[in-house]
């Protein structure tokens, strides 16, 4: 076979290889989109306005929009679940250092004790140095209503009966997933979901 005769065959194989690569790329994109679609929308948060400890200013749903938000319910005097939850939040806060796509929101279920000053000190102890992790305060009945009616989580016998779930809220204020805040499996899945949803952010 002459060298001239081999050129058409090489061209055919090259075209086939390019087609295969294009199909593989299409499959990867399709798999990614399917993977994202597997994170359901559980509901939309209602409008609310609490007070942010770090500024003393109102903070609510409109302030959450535009970023992914991981939300938990805590109180500073808690000596059982909250230290573990706080440790996991601290890990996430450090993991996403330098990213403006993810915010962490801790809502106090014990406003009688957790004044803005107490929450600011608690934030300092957790190593918070910027507004990527905010601590919110409101009258306990408003907190209960938001927890039960907005986040669809139990809020019995506050403060001790607060939920230990972390809730992932997307940039549109929609609840996308719930994660147990006390175990490593919940944290691993939460990180995966954050990674998937972050790809959709502008």
Task: Summarize the model shown.
This protein has six helices and eight strands, in the order H-E-E-E-H-E-H-E-H-E-H-E-E-H. It has 202 residues and is α+β, with helices and mostly antiparallel strands.
Notes on the protein architecture:
The chain folds into two domains: 1-38; 43-198, Glutaredoxin. A hairpin with a 4-residue loop joins β7 and β8 (174-180). It is of the alpha+beta class. The chain contains six helices and eight strands. Helix content is 45%, strand content 20%.
User: How many domains would you count in the coordinates?
Assistant: 2
Please give the count of helices: 6
Which regions contain 5 or more consecutive residues with pLDDT less than 50?
Answer: 27-36
Structure class: alpha+beta
Question: Would you identify the CATH architecture of the largest domain?
Answer: 3-Layer(aba) Sandwich
| Oligomeric state, counting identical vs distinct chains | single chain
Tell me the CATH topology of the largest domain: Glutaredoxin
CATH class of the largest domain: Alpha Beta
Please describe the topology of this protein:
Elements: H1 3-37, E1 43-44, E2 49-52, E3 58-60, H2 61-64, E4 68-74, H3 81-95, E5 102-108, H4 116-125, E6 133-137, H5 140-150, E7 165-169, E8 174-180, H6 184-198
Parallel strand pairs: 4-5, 5-6
Antiparallel strand pairs: 1-8, 2-3, 2-6, 4-7, 7-8
């Amino acid at each position: 076979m002459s060298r001239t005769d081999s050129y058409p065959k090489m061209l055919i194989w090259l075209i086939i290889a390019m087609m295969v690569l294009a199909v593989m790329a299409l499959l990867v994109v399709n798999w990614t989109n399917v993977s994202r679609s597997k994170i359901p929308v559980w509901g939309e948060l209602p409008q609310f306005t609490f007070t942010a400890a770090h500024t003393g200013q109102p903070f609510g749903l409109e302030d959450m929009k535009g970023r992914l938000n991981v939300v938990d319910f805590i109180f500073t005097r808690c000596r059982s679940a909250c230290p573990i939850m706080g440790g996991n939040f601290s890990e996430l806060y450090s993991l996403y250092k330098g990213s403006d796509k993810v915010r962490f929101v801790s809502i106090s279920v014990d406003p009688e004790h957790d004044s803005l000053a107490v929450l600011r000190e608690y934030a300092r102890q957790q190593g918070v140095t910027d507004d990527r992790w905010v601590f919110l305060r409101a009258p306990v009945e408003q907190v209960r209503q938001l927890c039960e009616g907005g986040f669809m989580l139990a809020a019995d016998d506050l403060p001790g009966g607060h939920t230990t779930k972390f809730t992932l809220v997307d940039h549109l204020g929609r609840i996308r997933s719930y994660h147990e805040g006390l175990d490593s499996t919940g944290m691993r899945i939460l990180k995966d979901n954050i990674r998937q949803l972050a790809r959709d952010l502008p």
